[in-house]
Amino acid sequence: MLRFMFAVGIECSCPTIEGPDGTTLRVDQLRDTGHYEMWKTDLKLVRELNLRYLRYGPPIYRIFTGRGEYRWAELDPVMAEWTGIPGQEMIQPEDCAEIVRALLRLSPYARVPVVVIERAGEGV
After folding, report:
1. Residue 6, Cα to own-chain centre: how many angstroms?
2. Contacts 24+ apart (CB under 8 A), 60-64
């Protein structure tokens, strides 16, 4: 049986644009909306709407520091708050990478996989 999934998203685009003087500028919508300081409030508001799924894209430019190098400490508290699972008990990044690679092999048309992290615990 197919289940319908309704999700909201916290906008997280972080493109670079050319500034008026020709320099490259980063537009970080999470920064510009105060999410880095207010993430607990943002997640609380999503919960108050009784939503089970949240599209949350981490700011890759802040987390990915180089090939095989990530600053997960910035994302761990957000994911632990949303899922109710401590970071060390969550599926690990290398497992996610393996899953995504396997899914991409299944379809030559898949280009942008989306990982859904579902809240755990009672009342979800």
Report:
1. 16
2. 60/14, 61/14, 61/26, 61/28
CA atoms within 13 A on the CB side of 36: 9
Q: Where are the beta strands (DSSP E) in the chain?
A: 7-10, 16-18, 24-26, 53-56, 64-66, 69-70
User: pLDDT of 93-117, one tens digit each?
Assistant: 677 777 777 767 776 666 655 655 5
Give burial (CB, 10 Å; 0-12/13-18/19+) of 31. Answer: middle
Q: Tokens 């989306």 belong to which residue?
A: 114
- Identity of residue 59: P
Domain ranges of the chain: 7-106
